[in-house]
Write a structure and sequence with these properties.
- By secondary structure, this protein is of the alpha/beta class.
- The chain has 2 domains: 202 residues, Isopropylmalate Dehydrogenase; 129 residues, Isopropylmalate Dehydrogenase (3-Layer(aba) Sandwich), CATH 3.40.718.10.
- The chain is built from 14 helices and 12 strands.
- Strands 3-4-2-1-5-12-11-6-7-10-8-9 form a 12-stranded mixed β-sheet, sandwiched between helices.
- Helix 1 crosses helix 3 and helix 1 crosses helix 14.
- The N and C termini lie close together (6 Å).
Length: 340
């Protein structure tokens, strides 16, 4: 079905994030910028009083309209921010507590349920403090693993991609101590992550033949074994196997040159060996518009690529750019899925 003839996707659903952080005020700011930013309709799970107070702190006139079902969101969205459900709490920026964490978790759970049930076109998760959620019964390393479990997907098959206007990166290993990275990478892991990335870039981003640049682990790509042999033992064979499958993978590329402007023109995503190798260039280039996208799920899930920022919550200093980008990207991916 062509995009011109396909019905619009269902509205997006957003979770509040930690109410003591910047999430609520940035959702309000995103709604205020909805026309300029070209955002598709979205509803927030809970937070009528919370969002009103957060918006007022930034001088935003925010009409709010409670809705009984997500199906009402599209009609309400042009005139007011649709709020689904009665979850709520006080707005105390910069003062995280157990009640706020419980509210964040309840909003995340309900928003995820709606996305998994296909009532929502996509899920946008607000920033949370994982340590705070752990105190109220959250037993996952992060929201990515939580959403993957809700979708029935193994955590290792939910791939985190960081995406901005200038760069997309995927960390092969995520929350792993740097000393443990060499033992954690494998030919199978590289191949599995690259396959998931290639399929997602085709399906959700409309890239017909995704180009994947695979970063080296060691300086100078190991320099023929003088600085490590992981490139020869692991990375190189994985790339050869991907190429044999018809995937346009190249490398191992020395990471110190991979993110230069001329190099970025040659690939659609960089598959990096560890957390900071992927996140430092993304945040250096696209900090205020970076999006965390989970690939490999049956649903669309995005999140702004920043944390709760408790220290500046309520000051008006936080940029809504990444929240707007996460909502826009979720809407675009949902539209592509709806038209497939």
């Amino acid at each position: 079905m062509s995009e011109a003839n396909s019905p619009p996707p269902a509205p997006l659903v957003a979770s509040l994030g930690d109410p003591a952080g910047v999430g609520p005020e940035l959702l309000a700011a995103a709604w205020a910028e909805r026309e300029r930013a070209g955002l598709q309709p979205f509803a927030v799970v809970g937070g009528v009083r919370l969002l009103a107070a957060a918006a007022a702190s930034r001088g935003i006139e925010l009409p709010i309209e409670p809705i009984a079902s997500l199906a009402e969101a599209a009609a309400v969205f042009p005139r007011a921010l649709p709020i689904l459900g009665t979850l709520d709490g006080p707005w105390r920026p910069g003062e995280p507590d157990a009640d706020g964490a419980a509210l964040a978790l309840a909003s995340l759970e309900r928003a995820t349920e709606l996305a998994v049930a296909c009532e929502a076109g996509g899920l946008v998760t607000g920033p949370i403090a994982k340590s705070r959620l752990a105190d109220v019964g959250f037993h996952y390393p992060g929201q990515t693993e939580f959403v993957a479990h809700a979708c029935g997907i193994a955590a290792q098959d939910a791939v985190m991609m960081l995406a901005g206007p200038q760069l997309r990166t995927i960390p092969l290993t995520v929350h792993v101590a740097l000393a443990n990275v060499p033992g954690a990478i494998s030919v199978d892991l590289i191949r599995r992550r690259a396959r998931i990335a290639a399929e997602a870039l085709r399906r959700d981003f409309g890239i017909t033949r995704p180009r994947i640049a695979v970063a080296a682990l060691n300086p100078h790509a190991g320099e023929d074994g003088r600085m490590g042999d992981e490139e020869a033992r692991i990375v190189g064979p994985a790339i050869a196997a991907l190429q044999a499958e018809g995937i346009d993978a190249t490398g191992p590329h020395p990471a110190d040159a991979l993110f230069a402007p001329h190099a970025r023109a040659d690939y659609d995503v960089a598959l990096c060996m560890y957390h900071d190798q992927a996140l430092i260039p993304l945040k250096a280039l696209d900090f205020d518009s970076g999006v965390n996208v989970t690939l490999g799920l049956p649903i669309v899930r995005t999140s702004p690529d920043h944390g709760t920022a408790f220290g500046i919550a309520g000051t008006g200093r936080a940029s809504a750019g990444a929240t707007i980008a996460a909502l826009r990207m979720a809407g675009e991916c949902a539209a592509r899925r709806a038209s497939a």
